[in-house]
Amino acid sequence: MTNEMWGELKKNLRKSVGEHNYTHWIAPLELASVQNGVATLAAPSAYMGTYVQRNFGDLILGELSQVEDNVRRIEFNVIRPGLRPAPAVNTNQAMPAAAPTEYEPAAPVAAESTGVSAENLSMQERMLRPAPLDPSYTFDSFVVGKPNELAHAAARRVASGGEVEFNPLFLYGGVGLGKTHLMHAIAWEMKAQDPNLNVVYLSAEQFMYRFVQALREKKMMDFKALFRNVDVLMVDDVQFIAGKDSTQEEFFHTFNALVEHNKQIILSGDCAPNEIKQLPARLSSRLSSGLVVDLHPTDYELRLGILQSKVDAFQLKHPEIVVADGVMEFLAHRISTNVRVLEGALTRLFAFASLVGREITLELTQDCLSDVLRSSERKLTIEEIQRQVAEHYNIRLSDMIGPKRLRSFARPRQVAMYLCKKLTRRSLPEIGRRFGGRDHTTVMHGVKKIEELRQQDAQIADDLEMLRRALEE
Ligand SMILES: Nc1ncnc2c1ncn2[C@@H]1O[C@H](COP(=O)(O)OP(=O)(O)OP(=O)(O)O)[C@@H](O)[C@H]1O
Question: Which PANTHER family does this chain map to (predicted)?
Fold first, then answer.
């Protein structure tokens, strides 16, 4: 991706986020690299990176993926004072093995904020310096629901210490579903039980970064010794090392040595080990040898529970802010992409409400979050609706679309037409075409009929509500 493309992309962002947000948050960002599906942006401070990630992360990702279709994630690096960011690199370019980088990876925020420069740290501190743990990522703040209950139970079991039962514990799932949160929670819990326990948490990218550093400084023996002496090793986003031959080789040896000594390993990834592309079979089978659990996409109830707990936490700090009825339900319905986006939306709402001193109403929510709501809008297709309705009424899809006028087919057909009209932006003629080439007046009649029945027939009203929920989830 070229600097020109990045410039163009920023112009689009400017339109979406408005002038004020653009000047403060987007304009200072530079694109450092796009590699292996990760776009790295350079921000002047860690705080800025975190803020942008939370509030505009999905928007930026959306724009980036229009230009580079393999971008799945964005990360932020901190520009060290006095250094300009490296020019944006071509995605096809492989990362030079030991290229000196002008950036600190995102994690050294702790060192930065305590004023300790990386150069002054000892070899041991540099190599094993864990990424900071987020104090808010604890078991107490983790909301458990059906989609994550197994992962939560496994994390709790591992955190309770004692005999190592599953090694490694491998947590996987889509973006922003709580993998990192659970890993930090395990680390906090273990440290609370035994403050002397050497728990090292870091991202796979940081593991690679340190490995490359050790190679460059000819400190491989130290690197090996240090990593093999930890009590608990946690590596986030392991898919990152796939295809990086020497890093994955070293990781494999570290992994084996720790397992051999009965040391707990906890890993996370965006998919199951056997689905990680370019990961050698022997490593993938080692990673699958303990307990592999996935975090499923959130459902409506879990999202509502998470929102409730976040609102409670916000209101502890800002008791003056009132959230009107229906706002959380609205957000839980409309933002189903991932929890990070949900949280970002809430943070923005609270910031806005506290600035203007107003109650958080539905209207304010829609105004303040119009960009997030737009980008989270799931584009339902007519086919999806037809399929769901056919399944609900237990009829074949072909009967729903076909010419038969039997009531047992005609009513579900009208329900499906009604939902297509309400939940998609398709025109009546277009809907008619997709229902076996029917005329738009037939669709209009069907929609009207269901609108009437909805008022008179509780069963139809229930069916519609259930179908709408299932489709919007
Ligand atoms: N069940 C939950 N309860 C409370 N907060 C949650 C829950 N799930 C996710 N979150 C919050 O959502 C945000 C994103 O979660 P987290 O960073 O753990 O996701 P992840 O699965 O590691 O994502 P990625 O794949 O991007 O690394 C965090 O702020 C986390 O606290």
Answer: CHROMOSOMAL REPLICATION INITIATOR PROTEIN DNAA
